[in-house]
Amino acid sequence: MSKLTDLPKRILIGRALRSDKLGETLLPKRIALPVFASDPLSSVAYAPGEVLLVLSIAGVSAYHFSPWIAVAVVVLMFTVVASYRQNVRAYPSGGGDYEVATTNLGPKAGLTVASALLVDYVLTVAVSISSGVENLGSAIPFVIEHKTFCAIGAIVLLTVMNLRGVKESGKLFAVPTYLFVAGIFLMILWGAFRGLILGDTMHAPTSDFEIKPEHQGLAGFALVFLLLRAFSSGCAALTGVEAISNGVPAFRKPKSRNAATTLALMGLLAVTMFCGIIGLALATDVKMAENPAVDLIRDGVPVGAGFTQDPVIAQVAEAVFGHGSFLFMVLAAATALVLFLAANTAYNGFPLLGSILAQDRYLPRQLHTRGDRLAFSNGIVLLAGAAILLVWIYGADSTHLIQLYIVGVFVSFTLSQTGMVRHWNRLLADERDRARRRHMVRSRAINAFGAFFCGVVLVIVLATKFTHGAWVALLGMVIFYGTMTAIRKHYDRVADEIAADETPADESVRPSRVHAIVLVSKLHRPTLRALAYAQLIRADQLEALSISVDPDETKALREDWERRAINVPLKILDSPYREVTRPVIEYVKGLRRQSPRDVVSVYIPEYVVGHWYEHLLHNQSALRLKGRLLFTPGVMVTSVPYQLQSSEAAKKRARKRADWSAPGSVRRGPVERGHKGPNRKG
Amino acid sequence: MSKLTDLPKRILIGRALRSDKLGETLLPKRIALPVFASDPLSSVAYAPGEVLLVLSIAGVSAYHFSPWIAVAVVVLMFTVVASYRQNVRAYPSGGGDYEVATTNLGPKAGLTVASALLVDYVLTVAVSISSGVENLGSAIPFVIEHKTFCAIGAIVLLTVMNLRGVKESGKLFAVPTYLFVAGIFLMILWGAFRGLILGDTMHAPTSDFEIKPEHQGLAGFALVFLLLRAFSSGCAALTGVEAISNGVPAFRKPKSRNAATTLALMGLLAVTMFCGIIGLALATDVKMAENPAVDLIRDGVPVGAGFTQDPVIAQVAEAVFGHGSFLFMVLAAATALVLFLAANTAYNGFPLLGSILAQDRYLPRQLHTRGDRLAFSNGIVLLAGAAILLVWIYGADSTHLIQLYIVGVFVSFTLSQTGMVRHWNRLLADERDRARRRHMVRSRAINAFGAFFCGVVLVIVLATKFTHGAWVALLGMVIFYGTMTAIRKHYDRVADEIAADETPADESVRPSRVHAIVLVSKLHRPTLRALAYAQLIRADQLEALSISVDPDETKALREDWERRAINVPLKILDSPYREVTRPVIEYVKGLRRQSPRDVVSVYIPEYVVGHWYEHLLHNQSALRLKGRLLFTPGVMVTSVPYQLQSSEAAKKRARKRADWSAPGSVRRGPVERGHKGPNRKG
What is the pTM (predicted TM-score) of this model? Predict the structure, then answer.
């Protein structure tokens, strides 16, 4: 049957690439940084613009608040980085937010974090791809003219790549990420040099535009609310910071210290780039409006729907490097590339989280198996489908999508940091060593401040963005939460039902004898094999059973049986209506009625074929019979396979599939023997 | 797995209705007539109109040829009826055209007939539904305004009814068919009375229209060609005549004689109605044009695209009974209903023919099983899908669809009648009794004339209609033929491959010992049951095998094992990458390498659940493992089911499904024990 369900996928994604085994390929810091930081670093491509965009609601004059908002974002970034440095030290096994929350705050908090993260992965894809397309569009107009189409195309491409199982390597991440970082820094330095030393005045393409404020002269609470909303948007720069805490096992030793260092480095790069871009945007007079068509005024008239508002990074690059210059092009390409890489990280994170959730029985058990291709594929398709839906609904508009984005991130930040506080409290209760206690108290203080700050931000985000789209993200979280709770309940119910009694006197219904039946239609090789095998099993009774649907065939079978002198009694049941299943079931039930303590063992000769369409031509009756028999108590059903020549092809395919290893492996590191998450025994 | 694939169908078609067993419910002639004749009788609803429509190409003056064409159709009808009366006598077992052609002309001819019939069933649905909608539309304008939509809706409705397994009864057919026949006869008589006795002049709604001839003053070959085309269209009246020859076993005794009488009665009714309608159409000045929008002229201007050309039967009824009168409405409803019934006969014929073809291994074997619901459903869905496609492409225009229709019918008529000639030749070779010989010679003459006449008609149809759409029907036949040939070839190849050698020295690789393995993950009831069952099977070696994916779980299992003192050795395999399938396969292969003559018997505890979504949560690893194991030679795979409480629901459903009996049973009659078709042993 698996052949059947595989087919559409196989047509689409072709043969699996054979990738090298997960070995001891641990990551040095210089590679770990791009592997884990493409997501958080890439967010500086959209976060500064979002800040300006929100401020513009109060008019261009409000832009002078932007440095203060940048400062707030920087403080938040340092807080979060400092907090997560505690996480990677406390959980060197790769304690992601889910694990930290579950261990310290209980399964409900953990499940909340998991739901938030799942929603986040979907949004990472949607936002990064949309933003990537917008950045690419600043250099290639065609892309922006067919924005939704290109964005969906990019998601499909990423999906196919991930389903095929691209061999990942650190280098793949390193080149675009470093190119992007270098490009941004070059732009900041060159811009500063031109502005401060040469005294050039640089002009962004929108520098001589005006902005019609949607709300003139905001003050008091309304202004504060607007500033908080701008800050919320700026917080998009923090998405993905937590990734390293999941990936500690992938670092070289000393794992925790290297991870912490990488985290700090990443934070430093991110804030520098964030502030630099905001600074340059102010210096080059970039104008960003929430509704550019109406609120952006050129020569006294609104620019209209035909105008495309380029991302802030593109506008600044144009001002600094010159329109259409080589460096401008390179930076646009690097930005788009690093955003696509950021989207790709979600493709890796989703199945990893899925496997941990499966281990805790919130998702189907089989997702737990590492590199289970089918489960992995289903997760990827789900992720891509949800992202495509969002991109399609929101027209690949990153500004709209960002409204949904930040809720999930701060739900998991807040719960994870709160969990860390509990963690330290628990350790402090037992710790007597003074130096260590001091260290723990300090860590606890950092995490407590992190939890508090993140909590405040979460409230701000919810308050300022709920109606702008945050409710969609919350709805998504509720759906994931509900589904996972239901799955867990089902598994728990089944576990109760099948739990073996403690007393070994469970033997009350221990079966006594076996009555074996070999199903026979004709005497061909598969049947002869089944008969030979069944005879080896020394059952208490063995008989062959044939359902007579055609008297002539039955007669031929009987003659053949005698001619070959098969020493198994042949029983023939009449089936006037040419049914096969019912007479067998009735017969088996009859046997069970006669001697209820007997077990009936049914042997079914089965053809093994190589192609899905051959499945349609064989075994269908056997399959249906088997399905029915399984519902009959006291029955074992044995398939005796006969491999047809065509099965060789399928065997090879199956072997290839087994050799496949899932993308994202490089971030997970090798499996730690003995490593144990929470609830693993649950 | 069957649960999974069933779901969409179950949502759509709900629970199966429990219908009474096929009993000895044989049909009296008065019921058999409507059961079998709704298809041929209903075709008088469109055939006369088609004749006029084709003639109109040469202008209204050509209408005076229509009585001659009617005469030709009548002669053909008598010929075909007389021929099939020979069939039902020679093949009282229900020798349909397929059987007759296969037996007498060989499998290729048989397969050609089968392909033609399959295409025909699709077209019966498409044409009858389209025409039914047009007739209904003459009374209810809404229907005609949304013609394609209504036609597809009707097909979907019929499909759902047939999938649910409506209980069929003769009465269901009898009421509308007799109502229709009575209505037509009443119309003819009342029309004749008004016209001939009262001297009324009746006017069809189109009586004062003019027709712009597409070809003025046709003569010579062109005129003959047009007349032949009109005749071809009139031949649509003959579709479905062959149905009785399939259904002889459903008649009361003396079966053959009753079937022959019914056939004659049906022919008589059909020709009377056909001629009556043509006569009335001429008397009431009905005008039909092939392209009414352009060629139908009212007050000197074309009627345009907004005009709906009502079927001839509706126009005549309006002229005779008066527009909007009660009888007009009743007749329109009865016509539509009998046409829908005609479409329904295809839903019955398709699976019957499918089961016969499956028996001869041209279609998947499981279709052979009578009342196999899944196979039946697949056939129905295929039929409906093809019909919907045609209706959609041709905009539910019966005139266009009829161009495709008649080819298949005459292919099977011609081949069947040719086969009958061979049949008599064969019998005559052995027969010495003079009276009987005379009888046979007479039958042979009838069949020979039938074959000749049908062959001529086939050539005419092909020549006059090939470019008008007959090529589509031929293409369909080629596709069916190719597919069925390929399936047969596959089965033959497999049969060769699995044929047992005649020498009983096939034992060279007879296995010697059994090594039994019980797969264990935890010690719960399903596992304990599998262990208990496996112990009953006195294998030469028995061990339990567990794949260690988590050291703690493995430790717990080991402790549990010792505590319960299970006297089966427990073997634990490490799986560093948390795979389950590969280590088991490797282990089994290792065992086989060590002692190649051993058979490995793998016992897998399996959960039996009641809902499809539960399937997603259980047994997935087991299923995959089983799939892989079947490719490994020398292995038996035994499922030891453990029925969870929820499985009760599925058990009940399965039982209900088993009680279902397929629609169309009433036409097939009870299964004849010992009845044997051609090639049944092949």
Answer: 0.71
Q: Would you call B84 exposed, middle or buried from its count of C-beta atoms within 10 A (0-12, 13-18, 19+)?
A: buried
**pLDDT tens figures, B203-245:** 888 888 888 877 776 777 888 888 998 998 899 888 888 888 8
DSSP-derived 3-state class of residue A371: coil
Tracing tokens 């298949």 back to the chain, one arrives at B408
Q: A566 — contact with chain B (CB < 8 Å)?
A: no
Nearest chain B residue to A641 by CA distance is: B630
Query: Could you tell me if A189 lies within 8 Å of chain B, comparing CB atoms?
Result: no
B533 and A494 in contact by Cβ < 8 A?
Answer: no
CA–CA distance, A246 with A117 (Å, rounded to integer): 12
Residue of A639, A661, A671 for testing the chain B interface, max B β-carbons within 10 Å: A639
User: What residue in B sits closest to A530 (Cα-Cα)?
Assistant: B636
Angle of the B326-359 helix axis to the B29-42 helix axis, nearest 10: 100
Query: What is A509-666's CATH superfamily?
Result: HUPs (3.40.50.620)
Q: Which residues pair with A642 in a beta bridge?
A: A607
ipTM: 0.72
Q: State whether residue B643 is helix, strand or coil.
A: strand
Quick: pLDDT tens for A135-190: 888 888 888 888 899 999 999 998 888 877 655 566 777 888 899 999 999 999 99
Interface test with A, best of B3, B372, B498 (most A CBs within 10 A): B498
Q: Cα–Cα distance between B79 and B87 in angstroms, integer?
A: 13
Give the C-alpha distances (Å, rounded to integers) separating B437 from B421, B431, B432, B443: 14, 6, 7, 10
Q: In three state form, how does the secondary structure of B93-140 look?
A: CCCCHHHHHHHHHCHHHHHHHHHHHHHHHHHHHHHHHHHHHHHHHHHC
Strands B541-548 and B570-574: parallel
Mean pLDDT (whole number) for B435-461? 91
Whether B498 sits inside 8 A of A536 (CB atoms) is no
Cβ–Cβ < 8 Å for B657, B649? no
Answer yes or no: same fold for B2-14+29-492 and B509-666.
Answer: no
What are the angstrom distances between the C-alpha of B106 and each of B81, B98, B347?
24, 10, 27
Cβ of A369 and B528 within 8 Å? no
Does the CB of A628 have a partner CB in chain B at under 8 Å? yes
Write out chain A residues lying below 8 Å of B636, CB-based: 533, 603, 638-641
Query: Whole-angstrom Cα distance, residue A127 to residue A149?
Result: 15
Provide the pLDDT confidence category of residue A477 given band limits of 50, 70 and 90.
very high
Peptide bond into A254 cis (omega under 30): yes
* Cβ atoms of A295 and A183 closer than 8 Å: no
Residues 461-490 (B) with a CB less than 8 A from some CB of A: 487, 490
Taking the C-alpha atoms of residue B173 and residue B31, their distance in angstroms, rounded to an integer, is: 8
Residues, chain B: 682
- Residue from A318, A337, A339, A338 nearest A327 by CA: A318
Q: Which of B506, B635, B636 sits opposite A528 (nearest CB)?
A: B506
User: Which CATH fold topology does B2-14+29-492 show?
Assistant: Amino acid/polyamine transporter I (1.20.1740)
How far is B536 from A537, CA to CA, in rounded Å?
A: 10
Strand ranges of the sheet holding A598-608, from the earlier edge strand across to the other edge: A570-574, A541-548, A513-519, A598-608, A635-643, B635-643, B598-608, B513-519, B541-548, B570-574
Residue B647, class by beta-carbon neighbours within 10 Å (0-12 exposed, 13-18 middle, 19+ buried)? buried
CB contact under 8 A, A644 and B556: no
Cα A194 to Cα A317: distance, rounded to the nearest angstrom: 13
Element (H, E) at B254: none
User: Does A2-18+35-491 carry CATH code 1.20.1740.10?
Assistant: yes
Domain ranges of chain A: 2-18+35-491, 509-666
